[in-house]
Amino acid sequence: MSADKLTRLTERIWVYPYEEERDRPNLSYIRGDRWSLAVDAGHSAEHTQAFYRVLEEAGLPLPKLTVLTHWHWDHTFGMHAVQGLCLANERTNRYLAEFRDRIEKEGTGFFLAMDDRIRREYAHDKPVIITLADLVFRGEMLLDAGNCPVRIFQAEAPHTDDSTLIEVPEEKVLLLGDCTGGAFPDWTMDQALADKLAETVRKTAPEICLPGHWTPLPPEVIIQDLLEGEG
Predict the structure, then answer these.
(1) This model's pTM is above 0.90
(2) What is the pLDDT of residues 63-87, one digit of tens each?
(3) How far apart are CA 120 and CA 124, in angstroms?
(4) Does residue 169 fall inside a structural domain?
């Protein structure tokens, strides 16, 4: 998958690919017969708008709903530019509120100091804007975008404790966000949580897994990496 080009993953799923330079994750798009949804909101308004441009160029309607995989900035700070509604688990929404409050009190200096890639995304004094989800869930939700069931569920994972996974069962796809990685900022891997996530992936039984910052992989690779502590 190449950056700035929408890639079709399956009959109903497209991906706007990740970019390492500005730490932009994959943004996924799921098209139902009645409405469509996106997975993750982007690192900034500029990222979100670039995603929408390629959707429009492909003749795809903008998503009515955007689902967040976890609270981290590269997946959520474009929320203020999202068309339609945003959905997050309650823990993700709480973390966003806490980070927004901290920026309001301390300014953006600490955030920009966290990583060179953040500074590249927010170069030229681009504003840092944090908004909260419109809809909040706990545990699991089942959606139907029109002959396209989508399962959204929380999962224990080593990267954060607010991970949401998105399964599109009829497409045999599992969208992972960053849940297979270690914890920020030192990327420490909690092996007990990695083992639990490996079992979750195994039970879900997808044919394709999409990590947040990598290309699509078969579940066997994801599971092996998790069990070996290399997620």
Answers:
(1) yes
(2) 999 999 999 999 999 999 999 999 9
(3) 9
(4) yes
